[in-house]
Amino acid sequence: MLGTVIGDIIGSVYEFKNHRSKNFDPLFHRQARFTDDTVCTVAIADALVRGTNPKATLIDWCRRYAENGGWGKRFAEWFMDENPLPYGSWGNGAAMRISPVGLLATSEEEALGWADAATAITHNHPDGIASARAVALTIFWARHKTTPQAIATQLTERFGYDLSITPDDIRPTYIRTERAAGSVPQAIICALQSTSYEDAIRNAVSIGGDSDTIAAIAGGIAEALHGIPSDISFAAWAFLPREMQEVLARLYEEVPHQGVS
User: Fold this and answer.
1) C-alpha distances in Å from residue 18, one per residue of 97, 107, 171
2) Cβ count near 107 (within 10 Å)
């Protein structure tokens, strides 16, 4: 999950000012910050760790950080509503916040069940549900040492995602979209075709588009594939308020270790 947060922080600077290259320095720009992507991911982690209702917990965290900005208009209306209901979203927001599910699940069935519970409260469109399921399963499989090639094959079979292209193929013509179907497969490609955690984040930033969310999704997957270098983890930790740090610490205490490095 920290991998998601790091991707969000690094990508935050480039969301509306894309950088179509893997060569950017420093890795953490001086204007980088955590965005709504981190708030939502922490909320889902908190709900899983404490066994609380994901809808109520997500609303609580989002209201707490409402002034942080970056919210999609419809999502902001949802968490401020007195009676928030699912609104048929096909966006990438559910996939963006789902990495804690992939980390904590002890089976594919559990990953899918938790993913649906954390998704359908807002993103009850088939594309929104499918994208969150795909990311949760990718992280679960990566934790259990499934190869990137095998993961790509399973995702294509289950969700119809074309994962055969490369970040280099995507970069020249990619157009910003928040649609799950047009951004989540690209984020997955950036992770599965990476050589390290940092390489995945650089892939994600370099293709442009919704950079913080693409890097957040890629970062969560890349953490499961490669781990996170300690210097990058320490740098990101300093961006987070203590209450978020505490949720992350509790989450990692709960991560199953059997069969996982």
Assistant:
1) 22, 37, 11
2) 10
Number of Cβ within 10 Å of residue 260's Cβ equals 13
Residue 260 reports pLDDT greater than 70: no
Alpha helices in 93-241 (DSSP H): 93-96, 99-104, 108-119, 126-143, 148-159, 167-170, 180-192, 197-206, 211-226, 230-237
| Cβ-proximal residues to 50 (8 Å cutoff; 6+ apart), any chain | 57
- pLDDT greater than 50 at residue 251: yes
pTM over the 0.70 mark: yes
Q: What 8-state DSSP symbol labels residue 229?
A: -
* Tokens coding 164: 């055969």
Residue type, position 116, single letter = D
Residue 220's nearest CA partner among 128, 46, 117, 98 is 98
Domains of the chain: 2-254 (1.10.4080.10)
pLDDT at 257: 62
